[in-house]
Write a structure and sequence with these properties.
single chain, mainly alpha, Rossmann fold, three-stranded parallel sheet, 8 helices, about 50% helix, globular
C-alpha cells in the first residue's frame, strides 16, 4: 500500500509511517484471530490515523476450483440440484467473515480513525475459468463484493470499487489483459496497485 501512502503524503503534506501488515495467503479465520489476540497489531490499529484493508477471499478458492473442474475436481461435487450449493455456502461465509472483520477493526480503532476498505476482482484469469464457469461464479462473487459495501456502510466506511474497475460493468473483463496483474495472473502489478491507490484516494479523507 505504499502507493496509497504516497497519496496521503501528497494530500496532507507530511511523511507517512507505513505499517504493512499484509500476510500473503492469510484467510479470514487467521485474520480474525490476529485482530483479537495479537496485541502488537491491536496497539498499532488503536494508534493508527489511517487503516486500509480488504476481506480475505480464501473462502472462494475451493468452490471456484470445484465449479471450474480445476485440478481434476468434478463440478457436480459443488452440491445442490444446480451444482452451485458450494457457491451459496461461500457467499454466506464471506458475508459472515466480512461482518466479523469490520466489526473487530471498528471496535479497536478510535472514532476519528480513517478506515477505508476495498473489494476484490475475481481470480478468473489465474484459475483459467472458461466463459460458462465465469458466468456461474460471477453473480455469487459480485454479491459478496456488494456485501462488503453494505456491511461497511453500517459503520459509515466507504469502499473502493476495485471489482468494477478491474472486471468492468458486467464483470467479464480480463484484468490481466487490461495490464493490471502480474504474470501469475493473480496479483496486481504496479499499474493495478496504483489504480487501487487512486480509488482509495478518491474516497476522500473525512472520517
Amino acid at each position: 500500500m505504499w502507493q496509497y501512502a504516497e497519496r496521503l503524503e501528497q494530500h496532507f503534506g507530511m511523511e507517512v509511517d507505513l505499517r504493512n501488515r499484509v500476510v500473503e495467503g492469510i484467510g479470514s479465520p487467521r485474520m480474525l484471530d490476529q485482530l483479537r489476540t495479537d496485541e502488537d497489531l491491536r496497539s498499532e490499529l488503536a494508534e493508527a490515523d489511517v487503516v486500509t484493508t480488504d476481506i480475505p477471499i480464501d473462502v472462494w478458492v475451493k468452490p471456484m476450483q470445484i465449479v471450474g473442474g480445476w485440478g481434476g475436481n468434478d463440478p457436480a461435487d459443488c452440491g445442490g440440484d444446480d451444482h452451485e450449493e458450494c457457491l451459496r455456502g461461500a457467499l454466506d461465509q464471506y458475508k459472515a467473515d466480512t461482518d466479523a472483520i469490520i466489526d473487530e477493526i471498528v471496535a479497536i480503532c478510535d472514532d476519528d480513525t480513517l478506515i477505508r476498505l476495498y473489494d476484490n476482482y475475481m481470480l478468473n484469469t489465474g484459475y483459467k475459468l472458461d466463459t460458462g464457469t465465469l458466468d456461474t461464479i460471477n453473480p455469487y462473487w459480485k454479491a459478496g463484493m456488494d456485501y462488503v459495501e453494505e456491511s461497511a456502510a453500517r459503520h459509515g466506511i466507504p469502499v473502493a470499487q476495485v471489482y468494477d474497475e478491474f472486471m468492468g460493468a458486467d464483470g467479464t473483463d480480463d484484468p490481466y489483459a487490461k495490464g493490471l496483474l502480474l504474470d501469475d495472473q493473480l496479483h496486481p502489478n504496479a499499474k493495478g496497485a496504483a489504480l487501487i491507490a487512486d480509488l482509495l484516494d478518491k474516497l476522500g479523507y473525512s472520517p
